[in-house]
């Protein structure tokens, strides 16, 4: 599903430059649940942003579902991004003045899907994340864990090929973090390809594979026994 080869990325600020990704190689197969782990500043978000087509590498190859992602014009890039990718962020990124239902259905509006189907699909995914009864509530009326569930429903509603999550549990307490990861495990069990960025070891161990990033390089890439939320209690 994802192939990256010798990916490099630097940031330039005035006369200074910072070499953040120094030759990243890895592949992700369809249906995998992978975490990208590393300490703060190791380049995790930079890598995820490139995978999410929110940013471009300076050098190297990125192939997403057999499509080479390079020098695409913004219109085509946006089309692939919308079709292929779903995003989950640490800070949820919900629209505060819209209900849970509207938050989930809005991206479908931009895809030209008619109102009735938008609402049906949004309700389906809210049910999936256990929030059917909260569909008419505003984000401010929801707990952190519930907000992240809405964000997950929103990401799933477009049925992306790959789900990219940047520190999805970063703003949540420990118990809620495990519950959100358990939801992510369940979505992966149904076949979705998912990448989770985290700096937390026990969150990473809830995925089947851990890619360890340090100083812009992968220092370890291993298959692990996936811990289930129930094993944490
Ligand atoms: P992580 O997500 O692992 O914490 P990031 O990918 O966000 O790491 O950042 C890696 C390094 O790149 C950090 O030193 C950070 O300060 C720097 N950095 C990130 N984004 C930018 C940017 N837009 N401009 C300049 N430096 C950046
Ligand atoms: Mg980050």
From TrEMBL:
Domain ABC transporter: from-to ranges: 2-233
Q: Is Transport one of the keywords?
A: yes
Q: What does the UniProt keyword field contain?
A: ATP-binding, Nucleotide-binding, Translocase, Transport
Q: Identify the Gene3D superfamilies for this entry.
A: P-loop containing nucleotide triphosphate hydrolases (3.40.50.300)
Q: Where are the transmembrane segments?
A: none
User: This protein's superkingdom?
Assistant: Bacteria
Q: Which Pfam families match?
A: ABC_tran (PF00005)
Translocase found in the keyword field:
yes
Give the protein family: Belongs to the ABC transporter superfamily.
Q: Which PANTHER family match?
A: CELL DIVISION ATP-BINDING PROTEIN FTSE (PTHR42798:SF6), LIPOPROTEIN-RELEASING SYSTEM ATP-BINDING PROTEIN LOLD (PTHR42798)
Entry protein name: ABC transporter ATP-binding protein
